[in-house]
Design brief:
The protein has 344 residues and is an alpha+beta fold. It contains 7 helices and 18 strands. The strands form 3 sheets. It has a 7-stranded antiparallel beta sheet with strand order 10-9-8-7-6-11-12. Strands 13, 14, 15, 16, 17 and 18 form a 6-stranded antiparallel beta sheet that branches. Strands 1, 2, 3, 4 and 5 form a 5-stranded antiparallel beta sheet that branches. Helix 4 runs antiparallel to helix 5. The radius of gyration is 36 Å and the shape is elongated.
Amino acid sequence: MSSPLRDDARKKYPPRFVLNGIAKIGDDKINELSPEIIEYANRHQLSISLEIHSATKYLGEEKDPIQTEAESLIGATLIKEPRKFSEPRPYSIRIDNTPIFDYIELGVSEILEDKSVVVTNEKQQSPLINIRLVFNVYTHNVSVSMTAVDHSNETLLRYVTLMKAASEGKNISLYDLKNNTVFLSGPLRDCDYKSGFSNVDDELDFLRRICEIEEHFSVKIKIPDVIMTKDYKQVRYLSDLLRGERVKRNADEIKCTAIAGDGFRNRMKETGDAIEDLVNVGPSRVTIFGSDFDIQIVRELKNTQIMHRPSGVAEQWIIIRVMVLMIIRYRRSGRVRRQRRWLR
């Protein structure tokens, strides 16, 4: 290794290396390391690598007589990392100032050739959605693309709610959680969301019902790609009961097993074949997408008539004819559930 003999020698003959090899930007080979190439790598956050095949050390314009340092570089790979952008910042996505996605980390990911700035949440750990915004610095336009990546029904409900609001021209904003200010705000034009239902309102209604069932039973429901009519009706039926609604169903004849106590037998003797109303409290099982949900319900049997009466003490078989309809409601326990705001 060469060492300068005088203090001013290093200034007069500054050491430098001339390197030859294979240079790459990302995975693509390049012919030279120009300032334009380095700037491109910085804008697109790409690393530049140089696999050194030959190296020569110079002192000023003169070749260093001792090439030990240069020879030690041969075979090595030098990496130049891009100039890093600022760290992502926390935001929330809002519809008319109401949060729909409470937390999302957004940061600059690259700068395009037309100087447009690309902002994404690609560094966020376990995001609910992927979002990409492209800011055109000359036209001040912003293009937005979003995709749900968390496949829970809660996230899908939020996402479809956001898509519906965007398609209706509602105000969509990005709220800076660190500075408590609105970063971007306005309607999204040309929002193209295609619902798998007949319309987006039907999809939202179905997802709300699914989420209410999941929350009540503390389960996760996997919705198949094709929803059968039977399952769709069962979702509506169960969610109606959980909402406290009275479900009416037409019925003709009901066969049930019951313990006919003395009081019940005496009443049947008194009423004979009279038509009256009966109330039954008991368990019920609802099957949705192959999963069973057990609940306690109250059945109000309107205008009923006992068609088969127990003849002996041990006989328990009763046939009831329902002349009009059966009203079913959910028998609630004392547990109070808190619904999330976006489920209302």
